[in-house]
Design goal:
This protein has 470 residues and is mainly alpha-helical. It folds into four domains: 140 residues, no CATH class; 104 residues, no CATH class; 102 residues; 84 residues. The chain is built from 13 helices and ten strands. It has a three-stranded antiparallel beta sheet with strand order 1-2-3, with no helix packed on it. Strands 8-9-10 form a three-stranded antiparallel beta sheet. A hairpin with a 6-residue loop joins β9 and β10. α5 packs antiparallel against α6. It holds the Pfam family PHD_Oberon. InterPro entries: DUF7081, DUF7615, Oberon-like_PHD. Keywords: Coiled coil, Metal-binding, Nucleus, Zinc, Zinc-finger.
Length: 470
């Protein structure tokens, strides 16, 4: 039988509560650490603890998540993710929203203090803001939290922040309302964790101002954004040119400065395969751009990849190419440069002829062509399946109309005169008109024989329910 640990500081907490010790960052729902059936039967609250443990063996940081349907949770004073971080803020909310509630009885129904499992040392590495007795952390919606909502121990919010990262992020009520989504470390497109490996080159953070003193702050994998046509050079309504489009706030971010950091990052990478992967991602971002600085950076990256494939060592690569030093933000005397311009690149001594391996390039081109042909085959198969389903459905529709018409004509032939004959004649004529319209529709649908690309847009949208962009 588990030992009983009564929370004496909880203002008369029920002695029947069994306080089972938990691990850092652990979460759960209901008793003994969160209310149940309050304020309505079936309402369950969720709880979570942070990483810090006091000398008495209790968690210093505990968080309480209320049911989403409770009133007063969508105000400006409510913290991000709708979480209570202090007992005082929770008491203030209950007294304001439920004036008739018995607050002491409410807090006595569960334990605010949560014990830590034995053998776990107090956490001193992570620091949280210290609030005075007159402050309510709920009112500071931009404060840093030393616990990741998604349970990611390597979350960006748990890492030391640079002085440049001074503006807090603005939480949203869409993705941030999900129980396991953290805007600091979860990709807004795939919801999986980002990685800080190699300087965090593989993700993008939206730093657009969305309100006074707050930025969007949502992050996305570069590859996810490329696959979703939200990064790189995209024609059409979005109109991106080596840029990133944030799905959350609709802001655009220039990706040339992001890619320019890749060369500097690669100088600290030990394995050539990782270097090529980073540079290939930069190529995908810059390819097709019409901007001069993007084109110059793309040429620099492509020539670097070719030299690597031709056998140039990483050490020789970084030591002998002045253009790489400039793009990676390093001047000749080792000082960091703020901006890279075409004028600075024009002053660089030419690097000489680049060794060329035509067999490797032809193999790369062959692979690209095979990928294009496979994609075309899949697209054509998909179009065929759509056309097959719609055309056969139209055939069945016409078959039903023909059967109804035969039945009505047979009924008409058995009648000699009277009002019924006139009524049946009207029905038959309407049925014939309906058949003619459906036959005309079938003829228009048969235009897909030319291929979807040459079929009139109106036909695809009306009969095949395909939305065609300009």
């Amino acid at each position: 039988m588990e030992s009983m640990d009564i929370d004496q500081s909880n203002r008369g907490a029920s002695p029947r509560l069994v306080l089972k010790p938990v691990d850092p960052l652990e979460s759960g729902e209901g008793l003994p650490y969160a209310p149940e059936n309050w304020p309505n039967p079936g309402d369950t609250w969720h709880w979570k603890v942070g990483p810090r443990v006091s000398g008495k063996g209790h968690f210093k940081d505990r968080y309480l998540f209320p049911p989403k349907h409770l009133p007063g949770l969508d105000t400006e004073t409510m913290p991000r993710n709708k979480v209570f971080r202090s007992r005082r803020s929770l008491e203030r909310y209950i007294r304001h929203t439920f004036p008739g509630a018995d607050v002491p009885k409410f807090f006595a129904s569960f334990s605010w203090t949560i014990p830590c499992r034995d053998g776990i040392m107090p956490q001193k590495q992570v620091s949280l803001p210290v609030y005075s007795s007159d402050e309510d952390p709920m009112l500071d919606i931009g404060c840093d939290i030393a616990v990741c909502k998604a349970g990611n121990g390597k979350c960006r919010s748990l890492m030391p922040q640079s002085e440049a990262e001074t503006l807090p992020t603005m939480p949203c009520d869409i993705c941030c309302g999900e129980p396991k989504f953290c805007s600091d470390c979860c990709c807004i497109l795939c919801c999986k964790f980002i990685t800080l490996e190699h300087g965090g080159y593989s993700y993008i953070k939206c730093e657009a101002l969305v309100s006074e003193g707050h930025i969007c702050g949502h992050v996305a994998h570069v590859k996810c954004a490329l696959r979703a046509s939200m990064a790189g050079t995209i024609r059409g309504s979005i109109g991106l040119d080596a840029e990133y489009y944030c799905r959350r706030c609709d802001a655009k971010k220039d990706l040339v400065p992001h890619v320019s950091k890749f060369l500097g990052i690669c100088q600290s990478v030990e394995y050539q395969g990782d270097v090529e992967e980073i540079l290939n991602l930069g190529t995908c971002i810059l390819r097709g751009s019409q901007r001069d600085n993007a084109k110059e950076l793309l040429n620099c990256i492509e020539s670097t990849v070719i030299k690597l494939k031709c056998g140039t060592s990483l050490e020789d690569l970084w030591n002998n190419d002045n253009r790489l030093a400039i793009w990676s933000g390093i001047s000749a005397n080792g000082e960091a440069k703020d901006n890279v311009t075409l004028e600075s690149l024009q002053d660089v001594t030419p690097i000489g002829p680049i060794p060329f391996n035509h067999e490797a390039e032809m193999h790369k081109i062959e692979e690209e062509i095979n990928e294009v042909l496979n994609a075309l085959r899949k697209a054509q198969e998909s179009e065929y399946q759509i056309a097959e389903g719609k055309l056969h459905a139209q055939k069945e529709c016409l078959g039903d109309l023909y059967r109804q018409l035969e039945k009505e004509k047979s009924e008409l032939s058995r009648r000699v005169s009277g009002a019924d004959v006139n009524s049946l004649m009207t029905i038959v004529l309407k049925r014939l008109d309906q058949v003619r319209k459906e036959v005309t529709k079938l003829r228009e649908m048969e235009e897909v024989a030319k291929g979807f690309g040459r079929t009139p847009r109106g036909v695809l949208e009306e009969y095949f329910h395909l939305s065609i962009e300009d």
